[in-house]
Specification:
seven-stranded mixed sheet; 14 strands; 35% helix; five-stranded mixed sheet; Phage_capsid-like_C; 12 helices
């Protein structure tokens, strides 16, 4: 780059010298007007000057273009972050900002990637995808909730402003709890496998995603609903009963979440036992039943006596998830001699909101 700048400077100096030399012999317009001088310009000199200018122009055009090259720091992987943070703080750990928890893809359509890690398994939890999500930095979120019917229609009343008397406001507190996972791996094993830190750190994130998904199922299972006609076998009428157990105002944006076992039975259910009532919708990437989207949860129970196998309703109004925006991933050597202890931690919590917005389907006793 210094050689290029030097060459440009020399060329510009050469141009200036040529121009200065020509100006010394140039007669100003005022000289013509005041002195009425008659100057005959030697055509040979003009041709010579033109040749010199063309040579300088060619020389300038031959110079390489200058560009501002921005040097970016190379992207560090999780192993390098562990080593760097251990050297600086004595702890081989880092916080991973998981946009993929709430935003499964970035603008390019690829999974959100941070330090070689991504949180796509969080998106496979339908309750996290369907519920209302809030970010918080506190231990708990307290939210006001309205209870009582939205019954505007009263006997012989049109635009009646009289208080219905059934509405009340209560508070729902969502606790942000710690969800974590721990795994011990022999140090010699991790040293023998290239990229082991990234592999096992990703596995830890997937593990806490699974633990969280199971905790969401436990909360949903406690919601009241309807009971199937049989203990182990589902009928299409059971899903119809589930749908119509929810008030119409919550059916407008309603969706089904069913267990993998219930989905296996639902695929064969219809009036003619062909499964024709379950229709795949390519626009949403999943099936529809009675016009409502159907999502599958691998963590809900298979059809068996007293087990909750499905839920239906407006999940945005029925469930709320409060979470932090990052998860901690670490590698420790002091917990078990001869081993690395890989550890991941996420803070989140879920709570039921409107009690009428969601209902569940439980198998018969």
């Amino acid at each position: 780059m210094d050689d290029i700048n030097k060459e440009i400077q020399e060329t510009l100096t050469e141009i200036k010298s040529s121009v200065d030399a020509k100006l010394e012999t140039t007669v100003l317009k005022s000289d013509f007007e005041t002195l009425s001088l008659k100057i005959e310009v030697d055509s040979t000199e003009l041709k010579s000057f033109k040749t010199e200018l063309e040579a300088l122009e060619a020389k300038l055009n031959a110079l390489p273009a200058q560009t501002n090259i921005k040097k970016e720091d190379p992207k560090m992987n999780i192993h390098e972050i562990f080593e760097k943070n251990f050297a600086e703080t004595g702890k081989a750990e880092t916080e991973v900002f998981l946009k993929a928890i709430n935003q499964t893809t970035n603008v390019t359509g690829a999974p959100t990637d941070t330090l070689g890690l991504e949180g796509s398994l969080f998106a496979s939890n339908p309750f996290r995808a369907l519920a209302k999500n809030l970010e918080t930095n506190s231990k708990a979120i307290t939210i006001p909730v309205r209870t009582g019917a939205h019954g505007a229609a009263k006997s012989a009343a049109v635009r009646n402003l009289t208080d219905a008397g059934t509405a009340a406001v209560t508070e729902v507190t969502v606790m942000v709890e710690t969800i974590d996972a721990l795994s011990n791996v022999a140090i010699e094993t991790s040293d023998d496998i290239i990229g082991f830190d990234a592999y096992w750190a990703q596995d830890m994130l997937d593990e806490i995603a699974s633990v969280e998904a199971q905790s969401h199922v436990t909360i949903v299972e406690a919601i009241s609903g309807v009971t199937a006609a049989h203990a182990t076998n589902l009928a299409l009428a059971d899903f119809a009963s589930l749908m119509f157990s929810v008030a119409p105002q919550y059916r407008a944006n309603g969706a089904f979440v069913v267990s993998t076992g219930a989905m296996a039975q639902l695929r064969t259910l219809s009036q003619s036992s062909t499964g024709g009532d379950l229709v795949f919708d390519a626009q949403i990437g999943t099936f529809r039943l009675f016009g409502a989207p159907v999502y599958e949860s691998a963590y809900m129970a298979a059809p068996a006596s007293t087990k909750v196998v499905a839920a239906y309703g407006d999940f945005q109004k029925g469930l709320i998830i409060a979470n932090r925006g990052s998860a901690t991933v670490g590698r420790y050597v002091e917990t078990k001699p001869g081993h690395y202890s890989y550890y991941a931690s996420l803070r989140s919590g879920m709570k039921q909101l409107h009690t009428d917005a969601l209902k569940t389907l439980k198998m018969k006793t």
